[in-house]
Amino acid sequence: MLMQKQDAALLVVDIQEKLLPAVYDADGLLQRSRWLVQAARDHELPIVFSEQYPRGLGGTVAALREAAPQAPVVDKLHFSCVAAGCLPPQLLAKRQIIICGMEAHVCVLQTALELLETGKQVFVAADAVSSRKASDVELALARMRAAGAAIVSREMVLFELLRQSGGDHFKQMSQRYLMGEQP
Q1: Coiled-coil annotation: which residues (predicted)?
Q2: What is the CATH number of the domain that holds 171?
Q3: pLDDT by residue (tens digit) across 37-87?
Q4: Which of 27, 73, 91, 145 is the most buried (most CB within 10 A)?
């Protein structure tokens, strides 16, 4: 199954101020997640940010919010966004959910598994998820793959949503996301 622009949305799970410094490759996660948020915005996908207990863990990192200022932010106490019942209609209306965020083995995993249970096609951007330990990321990705999630890269998302080369949109996206040094 390929990602389809008209069927997809991006869910950014819990990349929050106070927890981000504790995860493996925090700076890289932030840069790669921002790249993915900007690409999703430029493809006009619905984008949603979730926050786990924001009173204690802080809000979504400002660099991400600035990349998609119109995107809704939902808060939760459940680890899974599905169990929390916090996902807005514009995301739930899509049959394909692209996920990035943290922690891969907790909130990302539980959200992905429960989205699969609801019949959604789930795409986890492996280069835009993290946990406090790299081994937890590996285990989470393996478990999500075994459950039926497609494990993808940010560039897979970009190219599948583009579908073809040529034209102004491709040129703009290519210059913005493929030229020069990328995170």
Answers
A1: none
A2: 3.40.50.850
A3: 999 999 999 999 999 999 999 999 999 999 999 999 999 999 999 999 999
A4: 91
pLDDT in tens, 90-128: 999 999 999 999 999 999 999 999 999 999 999 999 999
Environment class of residue 115 by beta-carbon count within 10 Å: exposed (0-12), middle (13-18) or buried (19+)? buried
Structural domains of the chain, count: 1
DSSP 127-157: EEEE-SSHHHHHHHHHHHHHHTPEEE-HHHH
Q: 18 is in which domain, residue-wise?
A: 5-177
In angstroms, the CA 178 to CA 176 distance is 6
Helix (H) or strand (E) holding 121: strand 121-130
**DSSP SS3 for 47:** strand
183 within some domain = no
